[in-house]
Amino acid sequence: MAHGYLNYFQDTLAKVYSAGIETHGLNPGAVSIMKEDGIDISHHTSNHVDEYEGVAWDYIITVCDHAKENCPFIPAKNARRIHQNFTDPSKVKGTPEVIHKAFMDTREEIKDFCHDFVKEELVN
What we know:
The chain is mainly alpha-helical. Helices cover 41% and strands 6% of the residues. It has four helices and two strands; from the N terminus they run H-H-E-H-E-H. It has helices at residues 2-9, 28-36, 65-70, 96-123, and strands spanning 59-62, 80-83. Helix 3 links the parallel strand 1 and strand 2 (80-83). The model has no long low-confidence stretch (mean pLDDT 91).
Protein backbone atom coordinates (compact mmCIF):
# COMPACT_ATOMS: atom_id res chain seq x y z
CA MET A 1 0.00 0.00 0.00
CA ALA A 2 2.85 2.39 0.81
CA HIS A 3 4.40 1.78 -2.59
CA GLY A 4 1.10 2.67 -4.24
CA TYR A 5 0.70 5.91 -2.30
CA LEU A 6 4.33 6.96 -2.68
CA ASN A 7 3.91 6.67 -6.44
CA TYR A 8 0.52 8.37 -6.31
CA PHE A 9 1.79 11.44 -4.43
CA GLN A 10 4.83 11.80 -6.69
CA ASP A 11 5.76 10.28 -9.99
CA THR A 12 8.97 12.05 -10.93
CA LEU A 13 10.83 12.82 -7.69
CA ALA A 14 11.82 9.30 -6.69
CA LYS A 15 11.86 5.72 -7.89
CA VAL A 16 10.03 3.57 -5.37
CA TYR A 17 10.97 -0.02 -4.64
CA SER A 18 9.07 -2.32 -2.33
CA ALA A 19 10.43 -5.45 -0.70
CA GLY A 20 10.23 -7.56 2.39
CA ILE A 21 12.06 -10.28 4.22
CA GLU A 22 9.50 -12.81 3.00
CA THR A 23 7.50 -13.01 -0.21
CA HIS A 24 3.85 -14.01 -0.06
CA GLY A 25 2.36 -12.43 -3.15
CA LEU A 26 -0.07 -9.55 -3.05
CA ASN A 27 -2.70 -9.55 -0.34
CA PRO A 28 -6.13 -9.45 -2.00
CA GLY A 29 -7.45 -7.28 0.83
CA ALA A 30 -4.75 -4.70 0.21
CA VAL A 31 -5.39 -4.70 -3.53
CA SER A 32 -9.12 -4.28 -2.93
CA ILE A 33 -8.88 -1.51 -0.33
CA MET A 34 -6.49 0.47 -2.51
CA LYS A 35 -8.82 0.09 -5.49
CA GLU A 36 -11.58 1.62 -3.35
CA ASP A 37 -9.37 4.73 -3.15
CA GLY A 38 -8.70 4.73 -6.89
CA ILE A 39 -5.20 3.23 -6.80
CA ASP A 40 -4.43 0.03 -8.68
CA ILE A 41 -1.65 -1.99 -7.08
CA SER A 42 -2.64 -5.27 -8.74
CA HIS A 43 0.45 -5.06 -10.98
CA HIS A 44 2.82 -4.78 -8.01
CA THR A 45 5.00 -7.75 -7.12
CA SER A 46 6.13 -9.37 -3.90
CA ASN A 47 9.91 -9.01 -3.88
CA HIS A 48 12.60 -10.04 -1.43
CA VAL A 49 14.93 -7.31 -0.19
CA ASP A 50 17.95 -9.24 -1.53
CA GLU A 51 16.71 -8.61 -5.08
CA TYR A 52 17.75 -4.97 -4.77
CA GLU A 53 21.35 -5.45 -3.73
CA GLY A 54 23.48 -2.65 -5.14
CA VAL A 55 20.74 0.00 -5.39
CA ALA A 56 21.96 3.42 -4.22
CA TRP A 57 19.26 4.20 -1.66
CA ASP A 58 18.31 7.69 -0.56
CA TYR A 59 15.71 6.44 1.92
CA ILE A 60 14.96 3.11 3.51
CA ILE A 61 11.50 3.04 5.05
CA THR A 62 10.34 0.15 7.21
CA VAL A 63 6.60 -0.07 7.79
CA CYS A 64 6.30 -2.66 10.54
CA ASP A 65 8.21 -3.47 13.70
CA HIS A 66 8.81 -7.04 12.52
CA ALA A 67 10.62 -5.78 9.42
CA LYS A 68 12.64 -3.25 11.41
CA GLU A 69 13.77 -5.92 13.85
CA ASN A 70 14.33 -8.75 11.37
CA CYS A 71 15.23 -7.15 8.08
CA PRO A 72 18.79 -7.84 7.03
CA PHE A 73 21.01 -4.81 7.23
CA ILE A 74 20.88 -2.96 3.95
CA PRO A 75 24.18 -1.23 3.33
CA ALA A 76 23.34 2.28 2.28
CA LYS A 77 25.96 4.79 3.25
CA ASN A 78 23.92 7.93 2.72
CA ALA A 79 20.38 6.60 3.09
CA ARG A 80 18.06 8.14 5.62
CA ARG A 81 16.36 5.36 7.55
CA ILE A 82 12.77 5.98 8.56
CA HIS A 83 10.56 3.64 10.55
CA GLN A 84 6.79 3.86 10.86
CA ASN A 85 4.94 0.88 12.28
CA PHE A 86 1.51 0.18 10.81
CA THR A 87 -0.92 -2.44 12.02
CA ASP A 88 -1.00 -5.43 9.69
CA PRO A 89 -4.66 -5.74 8.73
CA SER A 90 -4.11 -9.22 7.31
CA LYS A 91 -3.64 -10.44 10.89
CA VAL A 92 -7.08 -9.19 12.00
CA LYS A 93 -9.72 -11.85 12.63
CA GLY A 94 -13.45 -11.31 12.62
CA THR A 95 -16.37 -10.61 10.37
CA PRO A 96 -15.85 -9.31 6.84
CA GLU A 97 -16.88 -5.88 8.14
CA VAL A 98 -14.25 -5.95 10.90
CA ILE A 99 -11.55 -7.03 8.45
CA HIS A 100 -12.59 -4.40 5.90
CA LYS A 101 -12.42 -1.70 8.58
CA ALA A 102 -8.94 -2.87 9.61
CA PHE A 103 -7.72 -2.60 6.02
CA MET A 104 -9.37 0.80 5.63
CA ASP A 105 -7.88 2.15 8.88
CA THR A 106 -4.39 0.96 7.95
CA ARG A 107 -4.79 2.33 4.42
CA GLU A 108 -5.65 5.77 5.76
CA GLU A 109 -2.65 5.75 8.13
CA ILE A 110 -0.34 4.74 5.29
CA LYS A 111 -1.88 7.34 2.99
CA ASP A 112 -1.28 10.12 5.54
CA PHE A 113 2.29 8.96 6.19
CA CYS A 114 3.13 8.81 2.47
CA HIS A 115 1.56 12.20 1.78
CA ASP A 116 3.58 13.79 4.57
CA PHE A 117 6.77 11.98 3.56
CA VAL A 118 6.55 13.24 -0.02
CA LYS A 119 5.69 16.77 1.09
CA GLU A 120 8.37 17.01 3.79
CA GLU A 121 11.20 14.93 2.34
CA LEU A 122 10.96 14.98 -1.44
CA VAL A 123 9.34 18.29 -2.29
CA ASN A 124 11.37 20.48 0.08
